[in-house]
Amino acid sequence: MSNQESNQNPQLLSAKALAKMLSTSVRSVWRYRSSQALPKPVSVGSSIRWKLSDISLFLDCNCDMQVFEARKGAKK
């Protein structure tokens, strides 16, 4: 991702940026996504991105997806 892309939408993470944040591989990010072990991503054109706020909340609560969804709903 170029600096220009990351400056346009800093609140959205690519699979590569998310992998770096989680200290894992990009392939693992896609595995986590398919097993629903990560918050749902959003589609931006033909790209898949994760909201930084969702990932931060998910990591902060250190919980399963049900607890995350409940906390996310309470945060709104």
**Helicity range of the residues?**
55-70%
Side by side, the strands of the main sheet go: 1-3-2
- What's the assembly state of these chains? single chain
Count of distinct strands: 3
The total count of helices amounts to: 5
| Beta-strand content | 5-15%
Q: What is the rounded Rg? A: 12 Å
Largest sheet: 3 strands, antiparallel
- Count up the domains: 1
Secondary-structure element pattern, one letter each: HEHHEEHH
Overall outline: globular
Report, as a whole number of angstroms, the end-to-end distance.
30 Å
* Arithmetic mean of pLDDT: 85
User: Low-confidence parts lasting 5 or more residues at pLDDT below 50?
Assistant: 1-6
Which class best fits the helix and strand makeup?
Answer: alpha+beta
How would the blueprint of this fold be written?
Elements: H1 3-8, E1 12-13, H2 15-22, H3 26-34, E2 42-44, E3 47-51, H4 52-61, H5 65-75
Give a nutshell description of this structure.
The protein is of the alpha+beta class and 76 residues long.
Characterization of this structure:
- It contains five helices and three strands, in the order H-E-H-H-E-E-H-H.
- The chain has helices at 3-8, 15-22, 26-34, 52-61, 65-75; strands at 12-13, 42-44, 47-51.
- The protein is α+β, with helices and mostly antiparallel strands and 76 residues long.
- It is 58% helix and 13% strand.
- The protein has a three-stranded antiparallel β-sheet with strand order 1-3-2.
List keywords for this structure.
5 helices; disordered N terminus; three-stranded antiparallel β-sheet; alpha+beta; 76 residues; single chain; 3 strands; 58% helix
